[in-house]
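Reply to dn_fold:

You asked what the input looked like. This is it:
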Amino acid sequence: MSDPRHHLAFPFRIGADGRASSPHSVAQHVEEELVQLLLTDLGERLFLPELGTNLRRMVFQGADSATAGTAKASVAQAVARWLGERIEVEELDVQAIGETVDVLIRYRVSGGESRVLRLRGPQR
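and this is what came back:
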């Protein structure tokens, strides 16, 4: 896997030295890539319109079991396509809770330990 110092941090930020910040580890870089992928709307990237999931809309809008199923399929497909060589998904759970969608992804960065990413809409 590549050196994380060769990548920009996401979200983009300026480090203490006045230069663009880089992730501290490969695991942090992959997590930032995963968050970026999940929160990018389809069509948002001009030159990569198929990158993304539309999950942000689903997480912050009304939810039901059909929305949760659509979100799960969208996340699984996007992760397999864009990060399938970098991570192994161990668990993907998407639930409609109240009016929001709750997403939990347990994954392993190539050869590393399991990590968990959870995205939740605001509690109303």
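The radius of gyration is 15 Å.
Hope that clears it up.
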